[in-house]
Amino acid sequence: MNHSAVKTHPVTDGVRRALEISLRGVDELLPQEDWTQKLARSEATGVPLRIKLGLDPTAPDIHIGHTVVLNKMRQLQDLGHTVIFLIGDFTTLIGDPSGRNSTRPPLTAEQIKVNAETYREQAYKVLDPSKTELRYNSEWCDKLGARGMIELSAKYTVARMMERNDFHQRFNDGSSISLHEFLYPLLQGYDSVALQSDLELGGTDQKFNLLMGRHLQMEYGQEPQCVLTMPLLVGLDGVNKMSKSKNNYIGITEDANTMFAKVLSISDDLMWDWFTLLSFMSLPEIAALKLEIEGGRNPKDAKVLLAKEITARFHSAAAAEAAEQDFINRSKGGIPDDIPEVQLSGAPVGIGALLKQANLAPSSSEANRLIEGGGVRIDGTVISDKGLKIEAGTFVLQVGKRKFARVTLSA
What domains can you pick out in the chain, each with its CATH number? Predict the structure, then answer.
């Protein structure tokens, strides 16, 4: 039996548009011919395709780099297809070995539950909750039992499993590989069987697992899913992929003013990749905007549009407008309207200790470093003396461009 999309349907202009949206910003779409036929069949029959994204709630740690795949889901959701947001509460018990050189430590059921709830809330900032099918893979994995697990394991060979880069590398390095880690890609693939998915999305590091779903669907007599991988978003530094460890990230729970200012800090070149991967503007709209910039319009105008769109998505349109105004005020040297009020005592206080007590520096030594760099102001005046003692009074303390506190210091 040919397990590809069997019956051929005409590729209309609508199908071509859907394919263009599908391909926007992707790393790979495999096999593209099958996906085109699935889109054509869906248009001809009116039956929406089933599109799956699985995330393991390993940590409640989501930044906008993680939303690149969610954005693609939203684009396909807006085409009328069924989007399945799958929380891997069962597979998290194993731990995804993708790209790792050691066995991932297991989480408790309680940790998984808390993280899963956070993932759901954060995913719904991008996806339309009313059109999203929320599932947990414990629904079918728990029911497999020992017999089902043995039958599933028979569907794949150890030799094929060892072709996977991280397993191959660890084996050659003499690092340990636990048997249960072989179960992870099998169970992720089995999710596609249970959900009868037409397309599975993931990052580039998930390609092996995504193709496993395709293989197992054929083993179980289903039409195999297509596989779509998205590139990893480059962070604020313009060099490395976005990550908390590199401190080049924008957390999706950060306040609106910080989020807006961080987007504006990216380079003009990086901005266009971000437009492709993070914006919901159409490709023709982005192309037209790029032409305007190349024709002499200030690149900052485009960056402001992107910053407002991203800020509005995770906060609100009003918050994005306020963040823009806040940024303008600060760039003019102005003090924002809404800054923390801090009451302190013990005057006179050394400037380093004061910065720490006002939560504007994590330590006195870091405070001294900020002073040396010219990043500390009192009522707009740059402070250069690390030994300065501050007398009682009320004043605005500023660190860098974005950290302020109105301090009332008493004796």
Answer: 13-230 (3.40.50.620), 256-331 (1.10.240), 341-410 (3.10.290.10)
Burial class (CB in 10 A: 0-12, 13-18, 19+), 160: exposed
Binding residues: 244
Residues in binding site for ATP: 244
The pLDDT value recorded for residue 1 is 41
pLDDT of residue 118: 85
Please, what are the averages of pLDDT over each run of 10 residues along the chain (411 residues)?
62 96 95 96 97 83 87 95 93 70 70 84 90 94 93 88 80 84 91 97 90 95 97 91 84 90 92 95 94 94 96 95 86 72 88 90 87 84 86 84 85 79
Q: How far apart are CA 264 and CA 168, in angstroms?
A: 42
Residues 184-206, buried b or exposed e (16+ Cβ, 10 A)?
A: bbbbbbbbbbbbebbbbbbbeeb
